[in-house]
Protein: Oxygen-dependent coproporphyrinogen-III oxidase, mitochondrial
Organism: Umbra pygmaea
Amino acid sequence: MATIVLHSINRTAQTSARKCFIQYSKGASTVESHLAFFHNTSIRRLTSFPAARWAPKVRFMSYGISGKTEPARTKRGALLFAGAAATVAGIVTGVIHFQRAEMASVSPKAGEEDMEIAAKCKTFMCPPCTDVKVLQQKKGEMCSRMEMLIMETQAEFCRALEEVDGGKFKVDRWERKEGGGGISCVLQDGKVFEKAGVNVSVVFGDLTEEAAKQMRSRGKVLKGKDGKLPFCAMGVSSVIHPKNPHIPTVHFNYRYFEIEEEDGTKQWWFGGGTDLTPTYINKGDSVHFHNVLKEACDKHHPQYYPDFKKWCDRYFFIRHRGETRGIGGIFFDDLDSPSQEEAFSFVKSCAKTVVPCYLPIVYKHLNDTFSPEEKDWQQVRRGRYVEFNLVYDRGVKFGLATPGSRIESILMSLPLTAKWEYMHEPPKGTKEAEMLELLRSPKDWV
């Protein structure tokens, strides 16, 4: 974030400038755009919604690929902030002497970065997989930066879910003897969520031939030494199965993979996505969900959302049923361009959407009533969810093919209950038939 530097100004002037900046930041960090779809929701529910926890922070910087125009709201923010700074400078000029006030991007000192990492780690659900001192020593490496991001994402999402449910996540830390480990956070049989899981894993070692074969099938050229491919993989993944059939299931996963080849060079890539699986279609929910994802994608490239939306529809397709798992979202894999820094920045933007794209939908339907028939339909749709995860999901396949993987964490994505009915087909003209038709012909929501 851009920082204002005030040279040779007394403490009172510095405090005034800081207050101006904080006032503007608070004014700009609103969430009206994300709550616009709540037009049928009561004012009471809106005002009780804990929006401040996930309101986007103002950043005075340009986004996206080289040559992309800076967003208008960023320019307006910079002008307003510059005006505030000028006002303060005008007041103090007649009282004290100062050299200049300028906008600059200031990098914290090494010691300050170490303190920031240690402070952040205390806000996580538990200490990170990697020792804090190691994260501090290797703070510039992508593996360390990605681990901090996934731990932060896990903590933010878990606490947002705990707030709406009233329950507490069980934090389960595990180790992998081949290298690395993970942290599984699971809330089961809560008031709102039948099963909610948010997992972090950081594993390393040598890639098995089966796992390497899966990657080669995707076009990866991997050259190991003596049949070995040292790797490091990490990610955060979550699947939430609510009790109420009018609250959708949500899934997200963001991951980083790094492989060291025979000559010492490293291949790296990012992958992930967020998608929604409702039991019943709600247009407002669908538009809101996709709009939040599109906004995050558009910060980096205008083609990201349309491309990754189509990729999501193709990926989460149950071929033996001829239908998608849900209404999609975004999905991407093997992302290694335009640069590692830009790819990481994009993944970070996506990870920041997991609360604002989902929690408003949960609050909107929190008190919806439902019938036994609607609950039965939810159970049938959950059966389809299980089929996709066990038959097609790439992450499940990789986990099962990796020695030392924790099966409980891999299968955390499965619902607590599900149902399979022989030759089930909803009657024509029903809400269930409408939902099934939509799953057989995905549509654009934005």
